[in-house]
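Hey, weird one. I pasted the GtrA/DPMS transmembrane domain-containing protein sequence into the form twice and got a warning about non-standard characters only the second time. First submission, copied straight from the form history:
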Amino acid sequence: MRDLILRQKQVLFFIIAGGLSAIVEIGSFKFFSTSLPHIFPRETNFHGIHYPLSNIFSTSCGIISNYFLSIWFVFERGKHSKRKEFAYFMVVSFISTLLSLGFFQIFYSYIFKDNIDLIVYTLSPEITSKIAAILLVSILNYSIKKKVIFNG
């Protein structure tokens, strides 16, 4: 019973840490996707890839915030040294970044074509695609980070 409660607590903290990291990632994506096209006009469509730098930079912001939230609130340090743990975290996050970028391209190009009006805020296809990609990749992230990196 104690293990079940601890596991649920960990999942809840992972969701909270992930939610905060997603806010950082989506907020920074909004900033980068509106700022970078003024500097790099091809940012909106670079050889068929939409917002590549915005995705990479915002995902990096989300990864860094998620790392610190994860080690402070979610997972216990475990089987690896801090250096090795950080390296593993970054490798998994790099793969997640590639997956997230791929899912974003699919969602943006084929699925989310119109704005979504939430009355108080309107979600653009870019933001909706980013949110969907984050949700999809976060499931994979939790499993791998728990089992491989931290004390599973």
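That's the output from the first submission. The warning seems to come from a hidden character in my clipboard, not from the data itself. The first strand starts at residue 116 and ends at 117.
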